[in-house]
Design a protein that fits this description.
This protein has about 230 residues and is mostly helical. It has one domain. About 80% of the residues lie in helices and about 0% in strands. The chain has ten helices and no strands. The chain is globular and about 50 Å long.
């Protein structure tokens, strides 16, 4: 399924690049990370590759739903993605635009993805099984670290060439900061998702609504949007 997701990402990137659609800023990064994950799976980097593949596929599904909804029915698009897609439409600066998309995808989509995957199995997993899930989840951070330079160089070069000129002056400080932020977000998402899964009888709809609003507020702060 990862191949299908990557193919659709490339089709969208081609279309958006030709149209000057700034949603390509986030998708360019996301495609590179997904391709790196695909290589990691092929290399045997994960203990349960089938579970990681399901995570990748479900994760991508949440993103594609926002893309389809943006053209068909924007009222169905979750608030964090409304913030990110609207920022793309108004031509927000590349770094903030990229981070707004990453915020929506990690802090919202990934949280829902984990609840989807873990909700049906968590109670049946023993401590070792839960540790395997967490270890595979954390191994994604290694992929993020390995891909950070590529994303920084290639995404900036393509979408903000003026900023790319500053990268040699910054050395690895900016990449290190970005990796630390993303891995911190992912750690928080794991805690929040497993806490929800363990709270039997919790109202998922209410949880999703609260999470969507929290992530939307963070997105607006990233974009310096006071509205």
């Amino acid at each position: 399924m990862a191949d299908l997701a990557l193919a659709r990402m490339q089709t969208l990137l081609d279309e958006w690049g030709a149209a000057g659609d700034r949603r390509a800023v986030f998708l360019d990064c996301y495609q590179r990370m997904t391709a790196a994950m695909d290589r990691g799976l092929a290399a045997g980097d994960f203990a349960d590759a089938a579970w990681v593949e399901r995570l990748l596929d479900r994760f991508a599904d949440y993103y594609f739903v926002t893309v389809d909804g943006w053209h068909a029915d924007r009222s169905c698009v979750p608030a964090p993605w409304v913030v990110a897609h609207e920022a793309a439409e108004r031509g927000a600066a590349t770094p903030q635009l990229l981070l707004a998309g990453v915020n929506a995808h990690i802090n919202y989509d990934l949280a829902l993805t984990l609840v989807d995957l873990l909700g049906g199995e968590w109670a049946a997993l023993d401590d070792e099984g839960r540790a395997v899930r967490r270890d595979d989840y954390d191994r994604v951070n290694d992929v993020i670290r390995r891909t950070a330079d590529e994303v920084q160089d290639e995404v900036l070069e393509r979408h903000a060439p003026a900023l790319a000129l500053l990268d040699p002056l910054m050395g690895r400080i900016d990449e290190w900061s970005a990796v630390r932020l993303l891995t911190g977000w992912r750690d928080s998402v794991w805690r929040d998702a497993t806490t929800f899964v363990e709270a039997a009888g919790s109202d998922r709809s209410a949880w999703e609504s609260r999470r969507a609003e929290q992530c939307a507020r963070r997105g607006r702060r990233i974009l310096l949007d006071r509205g």
